């Protein structure tokens, strides 16, 4: 109700502006006469101005009809805080209309802070304050990059895609930047890594393990010998898992656990609480 009233006030102000504008145009027309008094030319100029506005400020994405490129300032106007009924948010520079979920993204919604901005990093970090809500995703892991792409997929599926926001991930013309390409490349790598690990696990099974505060940690193999097993993965170089190897052999790719013999089938990984 309050917003409706202020909306009405706003309109009245606009109308006043409009009428002063109209009279100044009329004065100009009276002074100059000429082509500007011809309504046809006024229409042409109006159409050109509208086209220029649409083309240069809300430009179409090249090769993708019906989508727009927004500046961060334009995106901000679709934030819950600005009082807009239309709510946009951006993930990895792609803009989505989330208006249909006012309960979640509206002013009083639990995720309203995501609207009007690209807060990509917070989709991973869960830090929802000013520092956390940033589009700077540098230094995240390839798994995180995959997580971001999954969030983007989620919004494509559940909401309406609007276009792109100019900045880190898309340039002025809406073309992808190196930053978004790096994220997508990382995400593909994470999927490959996961597949490779699954294949590895078929060949060399992962150890059984248990841990509790009281008893400490233990790993063991029903068949084979537990080894710290390093898989060369581009995204996560120093990652290892415990795997059960068929022979007692060990090397820098399949290392012994500390204080655990080569022929042991179980190892203590952390001591029980005293
Ligand atoms: C990294 C941490 C988290 C992120 C980035 C995150 C993000 C989100 C987002 C974007 C939505 C809206 C999805 C939609 O449009 O439908 C959502 C919904 C929701 N999240 Fe989270 N979330 C996080 C952690 C949590 C945690 C820890 C809880 C529970 C304690 C939680 C509970 C919920 C619930 C209940 C909804 C549904 C909201 C509703 O329907 O009103 N989230 N989350
Ligand atoms: C945001 O939250 C993080 C983690 O909770 C905290 O370290 C940081 O100081 C906070 N920043 C601001 C501006 O509140």
TrEMBL record:
Protein name: Cytochrome b5 heme-binding domain-containing protein
Source organism superkingdom: Eukaryota
GO molecular function: steroid binding
Record flagged with keyword Ribosomal protein: no
Region entry Disordered, spans: 1-23
Family per record: Belongs to the cytochrome b5 family. MAPR subfamily.
Cytochrome b5 heme-binding domain location: 70-166
Keywords: Lipid-binding, Membrane, Steroid-binding, Transmembrane, Transmembrane helix
Record-annotated membrane-spanning stretches: 40-58
InterPro entries associated with the record: Cyt_B5-like_heme/steroid-bd, Cyt_B5-like_heme/steroid_sf, MAPR/NEUFC/NENF-like
Keyword Transmembrane: yes
GO cellular component, one term: membrane
Organism lineage string: Eukaryota, Viridiplantae, Chlorophyta, Pyramimonadophyceae, Pyramimonadales
């Amino acid at each position: 109700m309050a917003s409706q009233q202020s909306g009405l006030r706003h309109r009245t102000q606009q109308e006043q502006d409009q009428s002063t504008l109209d009279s100044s145009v009329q004065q100009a027309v009276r002074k100059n006469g000429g082509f500007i008094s011809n309504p046809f030319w006024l229409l042409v100029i109006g159409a050109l101005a509208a086209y220029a506005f649409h083309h240069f400020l809300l430009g179409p994405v090249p090769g993708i009809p019906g989508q727009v490129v927004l500046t961060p300032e334009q995106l901000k106007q679709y934030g819950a805080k600005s009082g807009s009924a239309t709510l946009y948010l951006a993930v990895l520079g792609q803009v989505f209309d989330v208006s249909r979920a006012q309960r979640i993204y509206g002013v009083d919604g639990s995720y309203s802070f995501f609207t009007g901005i690209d807060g990509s990093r917070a989709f991973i970090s869960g830090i929802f304050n000013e520092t956390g809500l940033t589009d700077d995703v540098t230094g995240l892991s390839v798994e995180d990059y995959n997580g971001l792409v999954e969030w983007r997929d989620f919004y494509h599926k559940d909401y309406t895609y609007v276009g792109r926001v100019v900045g880190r991930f898309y340039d002025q013309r809406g073309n992808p930047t190196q930053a978004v390409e790096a994220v997508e490349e990382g995400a593909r790598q994470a999927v490959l890594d996961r597949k490779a690990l699954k294949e590895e696990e078929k060949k060399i099974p992962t150890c059984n393990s248990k841990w509790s505060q009281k008893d400490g940690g233990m790993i063991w193999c029903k068949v084979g010998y537990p080894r710290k097993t390093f898989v060369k993965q581009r995204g996560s170089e120093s990652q290892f898992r415990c795997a059960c190897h068929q022979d007692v052999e060990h090397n820098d790719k399949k290392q012994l656990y500390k204080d655990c013999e080569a022929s042991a089938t179980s190892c203590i990984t952390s001591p029980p609480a005293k």
